[in-house]
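Example record used in the benchmark description.
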Amino acid sequence: MQKPKKEKKEKAIKKKKEEVKEEKPKPVIEKPKEEPIVEEPKKEKKSFFGFKKKKEKPIEEKKEEPIIEEPKEEKPVEEEKKGIFKKITTKKIDQEQFEKLFWELELALMENNVAIEIIDKIKQDLKQNLVDKPLTRTKIDETIKNTLKNSIKEILEVDKINLLEKIKEKKPYVICFVGINGSGKTTTIARIAHLLQKNNISSVMAASDTFRAAAIDQIQHHADKLNVKLIKQDYGSDPAAVAFDAIKHAESKNIDVVLIDTAGRMHSNANLLDEMKKIIRVAKPDMKIFVGESITGNDCTEQAKKFNQAIEIDGIILTKADVDEKGGAALSVSYITKKPILYIGTGQGYNDLKEFSSDTILDNLGL
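Model output (structure tokens):
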């Protein structure tokens, strides 16, 4: 009876062991199956996406190449824009627009002591080059500037005179200096004498300003400093007689040039102008030079105009040009008289006399 019980127990134990064996492999098989299936694709996705990012970086760099090319494509676009802009800004200026445009320029010229007659001339020159002409904005500026330059040069370079060359034409060469009191006339004569000395040209001075004793003393002072002969007479003597004596002295001493100082007189004083005309008749100067102060502006222009009407001057010397920042006086004097500016005074010394250049005035006017 005991054997069959034992056998039953042993059979039951075997069955349990077999069941345990069957259960163990199931979870073991499932786990490795689940782990590689679930985890492996996740790892592959992460790494693949990561490569994509890495690959995208060089792809982005490649995209930068067309970005470099884009400005090349934009250039024609910019050029097209410029072309459109040119079409918009290219226009014809009518008479009304020109008047508005010229108004500011006219004010600037007037502030620089430019005479009305010159402003009118410049206006006509500009009108010919601007009105009803298709021009861009930049072209308008260039046209205005170039027209101003050409107009001013045309005015200032009228019948230019080389004084040192002129002097060689005749001996003695007689020069008469005219102008109002305080214009620097006597000092200018001394500077001319010094200039002649530097060029080995001899000269003699004539003190024909006999209306002021101080004037005779002043020119004597300069003559002594420069070691130049001065012909003079007493205060109140006949100015024309002094000039005549100086010419005769030059002829007898073989002197190259006679420099005649005259009494400073206002251009509005008819009696004094008549006296000056007498000096001109007697001395018969080869050149008559008006000396005026540059800084007096339109007053200087009016003086030159009156002297030119009275004796027909040949040339102009402007003093105190170093303190005249405007330059309009030179332009106006030359245009009104139609005579050239020979020299400008630029200081207090004998060497402060410079040959006139239109470029100086253009610089002063900002051109």
